[in-house]
Amino acid sequence: MASDTAIKSDFHFRKPSKDDGAAVWALIEQTGVLDLNSSYSYLMWCEIFSETSIVTERDGETVGFISGFIHPDKPNTLFIWQVAVNESERGNGLGTKMLFQLLNRDRCEAIEYVEATVSPSNKPSQNLFQGLAKKLDTDCDVGDYFSSDEFPGEGHEDELLFKIGPVQD
Ligand SMILES: CC(C)(COP(=O)(O)OP(=O)(O)OC[C@H]1O[C@@H](n2cnc3c(N)ncnc32)[C@H](O)[C@@H]1OP(=O)(O)O)[C@@H](O)C(=O)NCCC(=O)NCCS
């Protein structure tokens, strides 16, 4: 595994629990670009998918979050659902650092690929995953996944699948 990026040391990284659900919900809401799911879903996620998810705190405030899970059909694949970094902390390597922290966990020992879906207009997110591939010295393949007409109602963009890997030890 490639080394972590340099980053401020006053961040505290840890696995979430249900006690983080409310703060994570608020962080996702504040991004303004992510689909905000029910408060229940974040409590549930933080409690049940803790091993493959991460929260970052700074001065007691939740400033970063990733919800991830090991793909049920592909045990070598970590699927990243949502990534959020507080606006004040963006562009300083925190999103990348959280991805590396997840990949370095024992639970992710068998992970060879990282997958995530990204909308075509979300350049920071595209750069986050392409940057991860570059730092891991591996590939980033982009393909179709969910098209806008598969979503109910109007206004949801396509979601492209970014597949990063293979990830070396
Ligand atoms: C996407 C997001 C998580 C990135 O977090 P971050 O901590 O700023 O990311 P990093 O600092 O680790 O940067 C990762 C890469 O993206 C690039 N990047 C970061 N912000 C960018 C921006 N606004 N525009 C273009 N590129 C950007 C960085 O330069 C870096 O590229 P590099 O690896 O080639 O150097 C953050 O912008 C965010 O929370 N956005 C709102 C929510 C969202 O869109 N989430 C992703 C979809 S699930």
Structure report:
With 169 residues, this protein is of the alpha+beta class. The protein has a single domain, classed as Gcn5-related N-acetyltransferase (GNAT) (Aminopeptidase), CATH 3.40.630.30. It has helices at 21-31, 39-48, 94-103, 123-135; strands spanning 12-14, 54-58, 61-70, 77-85, 113-118, 139-146, 159-165. β3 (61-70) and β4 (77-85) form a beta hairpin. The longest helix is centred in the C-terminal third of the chain and has 13 residues, at 123-135. The termini are close together. The model has no long low-confidence stretch (mean pLDDT 95). The structure holds coenzyme A (COA). Coenzyme A is lined by residues 31, 33-34, 82-85, 90-96, 122-125, 127-128, 131.
Topology:
Elements: E1 12-14, H1 21-31, H2 39-48, E2 54-58, E3 61-70, E4 77-85, H3 94-103, E5 113-118, H4 123-135, E6 139-146, E7 159-165
Bound molecules: coenzyme A.
List the main descriptive attributes of the protein structure presented here:
Aminopeptidase; alpha+beta; 169 residues; seven-stranded mixed sheet; binds coenzyme A; 4 helices
* CATH structural fold name: Aminopeptidase
Q: List bound small molecules.
A: coenzyme A
- Integer average pLDDT: 95
Query: Structurally, how many domains make up the residues?
Result: 1
Radius of gyration: 15 Å
**Secondary-structure arrangement, i.e. CATH architecture:** 3-Layer(aba) Sandwich
Would you summarize the structure shown here?
It contains 4 helices and 7 strands; from the N terminus they run E-H-H-E-E-E-H-E-H-E-E. The protein has 169 residues and is an alpha+beta fold.
